[in-house]
Amino acid sequence: MRDFPDVIAWSIPAFLLLIVLERVSYLLHRDDDEAGYGAADTATSLAMGLGSVFTDLLWKIPIAAAYALLYTLTPLRVAEVWWSWPLVLLAQDFCYYWSHRSHHVVRVLWASHVVHHSSQRFNLSTALRQPWTGLTSWVFYVPMILAGVHPAVVAFCGSVNLLYQFWIHTERIDRMPRWYEFVFNTPSHHRVHHASQGGYLDRNFGGILIVWDRLFGSFAPERDRCVYGLTKNIGTYNPVRVAFHEYASIARDLRAARTWRERAGHLFRGPGWQPTGSTATTPASDPAVDRLRVS
Predict the structure, then answer these.
(1) Topology in the membrane (predicted)?
(2) In 3-state terms, what secondary structure has residue 136?
(3) In the chain, how many domains are there?
(4) Is the distance from CB of 149 to CB of 12 less than 8 angstroms?
(5) In a domain, 92, yes or no
(6) Per the domain annotation, does 225 fall within a domain?
(7) Is 226 in contact with 191 (CB distance < 8 Å)?
(8) What's the rounded mean pLDDT across residues 109-123?
């Protein structure tokens, strides 16, 4: 049971078709409060998605090696039977929540994840705007490996989680039924997650389920119109800059730091952290300068 299909690769044609259909729907009818599509923005999102396909192949090599080593060291094994799959998917979604939340409040992790939030539009193409530095999440799933879940099963569940999240990147769906909104992540919840205004910052981290946010105090319902992007947008459609701009900002702050404590703060504190009494070296055009930490 360890030869699992690459559900993301198989879904790419469907992704592209749905993007085209959503784009056509905007051409036929667009509300004034919807961000819609932009040619340059969509091209950047597609370029980031295409680039991530190739870079992920490179990152998978060391990650697979680390998982395989840990799996051989643990005596535990989770049986690959039908009733274990819902539990494994639940565990993967729980680990994803903490990975996602950490990528918003630890700057060196945010440097990778900021790519996904760099668009000022919110549509299905935004779902494909993925980072090229995908080596920052694997450690959050180590508990599953140590609990005896086969690495291939962890990877497959991660693909299912990512596949689910594609459809929630849209403004064309208002609300799902109330019971669904209470349990699952939806377009409404995810619009809040991509919004840049204060009350919405760093909320709704769930992948498939939104119940984790309700349990751990990071949930916010959609009330006001969402303004997408970063608190200070980067103003570029260059895929290379989009992929690495926050790493460059971190490097500038590290060079300007006066102590090792400040250097550690620039790496491991929140994205907007600056030493007391210092002047931020990160240019105003760069993102995440004043992102708020989860309260």
Answers:
(1) Multi-pass membrane protein
(2) coil
(3) 1
(4) no
(5) yes
(6) no
(7) yes
(8) 98
